[in-house]
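Internal ticket #5521
Category: modeling
Description: The requester needs a full-assembly model to guide mutagenesis choices. All entity lines are attached below as received. Residue total reported by intake: 396.
Assigned to: D.W.
Attached entities:
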Amino acid sequence: MMACVRTQVGIVGAGPAGLLLAHLLHREGVDAVVLEARSREYVEMRVRAGVLEQTSVELLREAGVADRLDREGLVHEGISLRFDATDHRIAFTELTGRSITVYGQQEVVKDLIAERIAAGAPIEFEVADVAVHDLTGDAPRITYTDATGRGQELTCDVIAGCDGFHGVTRDAIPAGALTVYEHVYPFAWLGILAEAPPSHEELIYAYHERGFALHSMRSPRITRLYLQVAPDESIERWPDERIWEELHRRLAADGFSLTEGPVLEKVITGMRSFVVEPMRHGRLFLAGDAAHIVPPTGAKGMNLALADVRRLAGAVTDFLRHGRVDGLDAYSDACLRRVWRAEHFSWWMTSMLHRAEGDDAFQRRLQLSQLRYTATSPAAATSLAENYVGLPFDAT
Ligand SMILES: Cc1cc2nc3c(=O)[nH]c(=O)nc-3n(C[C@H](O)[C@H](O)[C@H](O)COP(=O)(O)OP(=O)(O)OC[C@H]3O[C@@H](n4cnc5c(N)ncnc54)[C@H](O)[C@@H]3O)c2cc1C
């Protein structure tokens, strides 16, 4: 027999969006249940994004979940654009007064899960068969099978679809109610995590005729490196030696030497821009990757997810406490303004830095001209910097 439970907010997905939403609601005294398909260990080990905008750091601080982030996060005051084998630094702090913090997404996830468990608030891992129902009524429901194999039903006031790009909540919205905007890029990123100290104190975005490369890091001991590869590339064709060889080539610059180390993980990820409008259907609200995807070149994915739920938490609280619907009604449009700014910035960075098959010499000249302009014009550099460090929440 199915067990029936009532809560105020049913949250599908324990990624950065679902977990921060649950935490912000908990601080406001709003009940929520978080349902996650994977195990706790899996989500805490899942390596993805690693750059927090200053706006995100401030949000996590205000939410009281930034103690470890403040201790262990690496504050970066700029990045390098590397082209013509030379570094051109974009000095974020000089240009905008703001910075970014390198802190792995899985660390944000660990901090938020620990907080929720310490608070004794409900979070269920390893659930299956999640389905959402009655979205346009005032008591939407979630049915699922819990970790013990028992059927469950959760009746809610509001459902938050925070289940990422491959989740089920977006697909539960009837065809015709959503408009999809999508762009698939003709390349992918091969990413590795290496047990090696970073070879440079800041991120390096390298433009090279053989394709883009990125030098990043997760900690003073762990380097994160990416190579542009073909969209249908197979990881089997990339033994570690070949990856290092290609990284050495694309990251070459005067006075730079790349430190190698054991490869802890390697994965190929496709590049896509994707947005659905609106980010709401009745009492279902989509947040984070469930509603939008950006190519990782602009380091925006996790930051957008956090910005969405900041707004959603406020709107849901106003609704449940005071019966006000204006915040819920404004949610989608307000989020989408920030989403489209990030979509454009991520597309722009991607277009400037990657070589697509079939690009001709004209295209290459345009890219180099854009890179030189960005590196030498304070106005152009400031535009990159202010987008990268994160525009204020209400600026877009
Ligand atoms: C492989 C990869 C690498 C990335 N690298 C970068 C990067 O380098 N830089 C960057 O800025 N961004 C990167 N991103 C993007 C960034 O990680 C995402 O934007 C971010 O995770 C969005 O958070 P979210 O909470 O919306 O979604 P997610 O983190 O995807 O969380 C969704 C959660 O929902 C769960 N879930 C899914 N379906 C169900 C279901 N049916 N029932 C219950 N739970 C479900 C998932 O297991 C997951 O835990 C990367 C993404 C991927 C996939």
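Resolution: model delivered.
Comment from assignee: The pocket of flavin-adenine dinucleotide is lined by residues 12-18, 35-38, 43, 48-49, 105, 127, 130, 162-164, 167-168, 269, 288-289, 296, 299-302, 305 (CB under 6 Å).
Ticket closed.
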